[in-house]
Design goal:
By secondary structure, the protein is an all-alpha fold. Helices cover 73% and strands 0% of the residues. Helix 9 (153-165) packs antiparallel against helix 10 (169-180). The radius of gyration is 17 Å and the shape is elongated.
């Protein structure tokens, strides 16, 4: 039983260190669910002649997210985490839940924002409550480890089940681990 607990902690640590990107890029079904959810959340569609900034300013939250992502992951190695956080915040406030997840990850690390793990939990919960499976999976990880919230394996198991039911294979794996440990 002790070795399984150590395994869970090791795996969850690895997931938290890789953030939302792992969840959304490693699982095709999850990505499709996020894409469907994100399309519903974006307020407006940019016109082809608009710059990303103009599209964002006109209410296209997907463009705001894309700008944040570009600031965070530049190809020239000059990322600007503060600008990324501002764009993710704008997009999250505009109900683009994927951005809430990415912003939560910045709060975990204290990258571009003051580290605040409770704020990360709130952001993951907001995303999860709106149907974003990456938000639910990350909230499950936070609950399982007691990061930014009280450690609660029952809550983690419920969140993993929700992500599993939502088509996220990683959620199924973590649900199974907790189930095998006898977590109700």
């Amino acid at each position: 039983m002790k070795s399984k607990s150590i395994l869970v902690v090791a795996v969850v640590s690895a997931l938290l260190s890789t953030g939302c990107q792992w969840t959304s890029s490693s699982d095709k079904d999850s990505k499709q669910n996020q894409t469907k959810q994100s399309k519903k959340s974006a307020v407006k569609t940019p016109q082809k002649t608009q710059t990303p900034q103009q599209a964002c300013d006109s209410g296209d939250m997907a463009s705001c997210f894309d700008m944040g992502y570009s600031y965070e992951y530049t190809t020239d190695g000059k990322s600007d985490k503060q600008k990324a956080a501002m764009m993710y915040q704008k997009s999250c406030d505009g109900k683009y839940m994927k951005a809430c997840c990415y912003l939560g990850y910045l709060y975990i690390k204290g990258s571009g924002v003051k580290q605040d793990k409770q704020k990360a939990v709130e952001l993951f919960a907001k995303a999860c409550d709106s149907g974003d499976m990456a938000g639910c999976l990350n909230l499950g990880h936070m609950s399982a480890r007691g990061i930014g919230t009280t450690q609660d394996n029952q809550r983690a198991k419920q969140l993993y089940k929700k992500t599993c039911d939502g088509g996220t294979k990683a959620g199924c794996k973590f649900y199974k681990i907790l189930d095998e440990q006898g977590i109700k």
